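Quick illustration, no need to memorize.
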Amino acid sequence: MYRFTKAAVNISGQAMRQVRHGSNLPQNFHSKYGAGVLVSGAIFCTAVWGYVLTSTGITWNLSPVGKLQPKPWREE
C-alpha cells in the first residue's frame, strides 16, 4: 500500500508542476475543440441511450402504482 500511495502522490505532484509551470499543450485547446467535443459527446450519449431504451428489450418497471395489489386475507 505504501508504494501505491507514494506513486499517487508523485503523479499528482507532477500534474501540479505541469499546471503551475504551464503544460506543453497549447492553451487554446478548449476554445479550438471544446464545442465540437461537447456536441459529439452529447450525440454519442443520446445515441447509446436511444439504443438501450429501444432495442435491448429491458423492462424498466418505472412505477408499481396500480400494478401491485395486496393479497386477500385468509380467514382461519
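The mean pLDDT is 77.
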